[in-house]
UniProtKB/TrEMBL annotation:
It holds the Pfam family GMC_oxred_N. Belongs to the GMC oxidoreductase family. Its cofactor is FAD. InterPro entries: FAD/NAD-bd_sf (IPR036188), GMC_OxRdtase (IPR012132), GMC_OxRdtase_N (IPR000172), GMC_OxRtase_C (IPR007867). Gene3D superfamilies: FAD/NAD(P)-binding domain, Glucose Oxidase, domain 3. The keyword Kinase does not apply. GO terms for molecular function: choline dehydrogenase activity. Its EC number is 1.1.99.1. Keywords: FAD, Flavoprotein, Oxidoreductase. This is Choline dehydrogenase. It comes from Pseudomonas petrae.
Amino acid sequence: MLNNVHEYDYVIVGAGSAGCVLANRLSTDPAVTVCLIEAGPSDKSIFIQMPAALTFPIESDVFNWKFESEPEPELHGRTIGQARGRCLGGSSSINGMVYVRGSRHDYDSWRQLGVEGWDFDDCLPYFRKMESFESGRDPARGGDGPITVTRSKADHPLYQSFLKAGQEFGLADAGDYNSGSQEGVHVTQATIRDGVRCSTSLAYLKPAIRRPNLTVLTECLVERVNLENKVATGVTLTHKGEQKVLHAAREVVLCAGTIGSPQLLMLSGIGERTALAGHGIECAVHLPGVGADLQDHVVAPLRFTSPAGVSISRQLGTLGRLKLGIQWSLFKTGLGATPFFEVGSFFKSSDDVDYFNMQHEFLPFLADFQSGKVHIADGFQYFVSQMRPHSRGSIALRSANPQHKPIIRFNYLTDARDVTQMVNGIRKTLQMVEQPAWAAYRSGAVETPTLKTSDAELAVWLRQVANTEHHPTSTCRMGNDDFAVTDSKGLVHGVQRLRIVDGSILPKVPTANINAPIIMVAEKIAADMTHSDLASMPAHAKEQVAQ
């Protein structure tokens, strides 16, 4: 709740995957005051805590912003929903809990774009710092960090058939894909602690919440960043219809996400001058890249029926869900303790790509997570995703009213290279499903093409079914070019005391589910903020700080 204190050293906007990290790390100094502001409510809900209940917060209007794109030109004008967390923990409280760091090549390419200090060797200490991997600490993994990372059991026959079929096709067993080689089939690692979702709210905010120098405000909508002569002085917010101004003595830090952070910049007069003028907003800082360069992983589901009684769907009926809920409530075990995405793979769509550019996620039942309501049936499905899209979208203001959701255009598949890579990836997936490992469990296909389908027909089908992996990034990306919004420390170009730390600053979307990379980015920038000379430290000293 709001109190009579309206000035803090740091004002953090957004208590999501990055905001909770910063609130914890900055408030470790008792001489520093921190205010963390969240538009949504607390995350105290069984539907957030139980991994198997992940569909409920996705369907919720309370915990999910439920953004929606404009009609997508290459998807037959379909609008695409975008789930973003709206509660403590943000998207880490509603996501699928799949833990993937991404490829070394992803981060090394950031450096090649001119973003210094972000190659993989720079990032590895913070991946290690953030995680507590179930196998313990080693040179590649962390053993005592806030985020608990566990291996899935993957003991159902359909999971085992997925792994075996991939290897029969020719993929390697990647083992710990977050340590050595990421390419190949793998048993998924997940952010789950003792059967409970390990969000950044649980991992970072809960241990810090009682610090007297940390204030957490929920259900407060930040309307704008207040600027004086291109210096961020605080924010204006509304709480239960009442407007308040909070002052920041050191910095305002936006952690509102790939959609929310550019919207807040534009509402504050930071963005492309002409676009702002169209909404009656005076331009304080002309930054044409605000809201540009939107990237996301496009996905296509391949759905197959299985003989009755094989898939997990029979355990998810009314009685099965009751049993699941009771077992999880009492012991935090059973199906309630899994998000069901227990196996996956990374592979190349063709030999002409630099490194693996496709991802498989897999479910041992049929389910549609995209339509707003989840329907479950017998079968299994592959989700085929392109990891490094060439298509680019944008975020723009709908109006100058902060309560109006912005205009979102992903422009999926508008670059022909993305279509080619997806078609090739789908064809390889169909070949995997034809492997002997699936012979006993594959009884038919559901609105899914076959190997006899031509590439042109596959492209037509793709545009009918393509959707989002809910991995948007890069709308306030780091860099030094004319369309970069932030520098390598997340500081907004042309503005003093204003920083962004969330998925919007990633120079490119990584070959990964983006939650782990975003938490790493928050850890790294928090270290920069609390150890200003970290960037110039030798590698061995940097490692000690990260530990």
